[in-house]
Amino acid sequence: MKSTLFIILSFIILNTSLQAQEECSERYQSKVFEKVKLTGSIQFGSWAFQNGNTKNLYYDVYEPEGDTAELRPLVILWHGGSFMDLFSRTSPDIVVMAKDLTKMGYVVISPDYRGIRNPLDFFDMKALVQILIGSAIDGNKAICHILNNIDNENPFRINKEEIFAGGVSGGSILGLHILLLENIEDIPAQFLNWAKEVEG
To answer: What is the pLDDT of residues 155-170, one digit of tens each?
Structure first.
């Protein structure tokens, strides 16, 4: 009788464990949610043009609708566009990726960052260095704002221990600079004075 009970209990425990593993393996790998909840245009900062005008910076938050998980991993996605100021957090490729990841169970945040407004700046080394530093400053502002929200009310139920970042084109370059550039003094001397002129 004891051995039969042990076998039945073992089967129940094993079956429960396998079901839990199956559920875990589906989430984050397959689309397990049908709908996406979008909270758009959350302001996290601004930056000033040379003429004194300012531009506000926003991010959009994508969440799986109907998700009951207490905490969810976060993916931050920066848009591409060769650092041109023509592109934004609502670029079609970013929106598609954000929705796909959200349906897999992630929270996704897509932030703005400053870009080149004059195409001639592509031929000006100083302008390129400064726009890259400026975009990294904006990316850092977004991260600080997100972390501050997590440490306070955490309205989007983000797991602070599971934050990932990625980007397309210029957005991936921005992300790498945020991750790898720990000290502005690490910038080559030729670029350091230009970098220090950037607001922020």
So the answer is: 999 999 999 999 999 9
DSSP 116: B
DSSP 8-state assignment for residue 185: G
Distance separating alpha carbons of residues 104 and 187, to the nearest angstrom: 38
H/E stretch holding 45: strand 36-48
Phi, psi of 127 (to 5 degrees): -65, -40
Query: 121-149: b or e for each residue (b if 16 or more CB lie within 10 Å)?
Result: beeeeebbbbbbbbbbbbbbbbbebbeeb
- Taking only Cα atoms into account, the Rg of the chain, rounded to an integer number of angstroms, comes to 22
Strand bridging mode 72-78 / 54-64: unpaired
Give SS3 for 148: helix
pTM comes to 0.82
Among residues 23, 41, 40, the alpha carbon closest in space to that of 32 is found at 23
| CA–CA dist 88, 149 (Å, integer) | 22
- For strand 72-78 and strand 36-48, is the pairing parallel, antiparallel, or unpaired? unpaired
Give the whole-angstrom CA distance, residue 152 versus residue 125: 41
Q: Which residue has the tokens 């004059």?
A: 118
Residue pLDDT, tens place only, 77-124: 999 988 887 788 999 999 999 999 999 999 999 999 988 878 888 889
Instruction: Specify the pairing of strand 107-111 against strand 158-167.
Output: unpaired
CB 75 within 8 A of CB 166: yes
